[in-house]
Specification:
This protein is mainly α. The chain contains three helices and no strands. The longest helix is centred in the middle third of the chain and has 63 residues.
Length: about 110
């Protein structure tokens, strides 16, 4: 910068020539800086999204395991022996005496 000031003070190089040479170089450097910032920002966003994808994939795997465990638990709870145990212990139900059980037969026409 001191060269530019000295050149103007001596009156040897016009300001338009200095701007004509420096301005394109400054614009090129500015453009490279902008492109660099955009590139770095995009890379940071890609890495961030990669971490988010990895986290969601792990969460999905964990939820699938939980779903499988719950399906197994549901199948176990629907089993006849488990249903009978719940009916007897929690609900206080008992097997009815044979004298209170009636068997009905449907007529062949279904009525």
């Amino acid at each position: 910068m001191s060269v530019v000031i000295e050149a103007r003070n001596r009156g040897g190089v016009p300001l338009s020539v200095i701007l004509g040479e420096i301005l394109p170089a400054a614009l090129a450097v500015g453009l490279l800086v902008v492109v660099g910032i955009i590139h770095v920002t995009s890379r940071v966003l890609v890495v961030s999204q990669g971490y988010e994808l990895s986290r969601l994939d792990a969460q999905s795997t964990e939820l699938m395991r939980e779903n499988d465990r719950l399906k197994l638990e549901l199948a176990t709870l629907k089993g006849p022996s488990k249903l009978e145990a719940v009916a007897r212990n929690r609900l206080g139900l008992i097997t009815p005496p044979p004298s209170t059980v009636f068997h009905l037969e449907l007529s062949p026409s279904g009525k």
